[in-house]
Amino acid sequence: MYYLQRRGFRDPSLITELAIGYAPGGNLHRHLAVGAMPFDQLWRAGLINRQGQDCFRRRVIVPLDQDGRIVNLYGRSIGAAFPHRFLPQSKGGLFAWNSVRAFSALILVEGLFDLAALWQSGFRNTTSALGGHLTPLQLSQLCDQPGRQVYIAFDQDENQAGQRASQTLARRLESAGLRARIIELPPGHDPSSYFAAGARAADFARCLDRAHSLHV
Hints:
alpha/beta, 4-stranded antiparallel beta sheet, 10 helices, 34% helix, 4-stranded parallel beta sheet, single chain
C-alpha cells in the first residue's frame, strides 16, 4: 500500500475497482501444485521460471480484462527487477475498453498507473495502450466511432522516445480517420508522476486545453 501511496494513489475504491493486488513471490508454485498443475504448464504460462521461482514476485499486479475474461496480467516491479512484465501472450485490447468506448473524445496513455492517476482525478475517458504502440485490435477499437478525437498523453522522456512515439501514433490515427492531439506535460513527467508530484485536475485540464495537432 505504501508503494501505491507514493505513486499518488489516494482513493482505495480505485484500487478495488482495478483489482490491484500484490505478489510477494515464493508461494505460487507451491499453491498451484496443490491443485496438481504440472510444472511445465506453469512455466509455459509464464508464471514461474525454470528454477520454479515466481516470475511476478515483488510486483504490483493488475489483471487485464477483455469482455469479462482475464486475458493477461500486468506486473509492476517495486524492486530492482525490470519494471514491466506481462504473461507471454496477447495483452488484449485497450484497457477498460467497455468503460470508455462510448466517449467521442478519449485520452490515451501508455501505462496503467497513468490511467489510474487520471481516473482518480476525474478523467474517466482515459484508456491505456499498455505501451507506446497500438495493436491492430486496439486501433480498430478506437475507429469504432469515425472522427473520434484521441488525446495522446505519453511520457515526456529526456531521450524524446515518448515524444517520437506520440507523433508516430498521431499520424497513424489521422490516417485511420481519427483526430489526434498531443498533450505536452512538463519535461520528464508522465501523467502518473505529474499527479504524484502535486498536480491537480485543473493543471492537467490546462495541458489538455493546450494539446496540439501534428499540423501546429
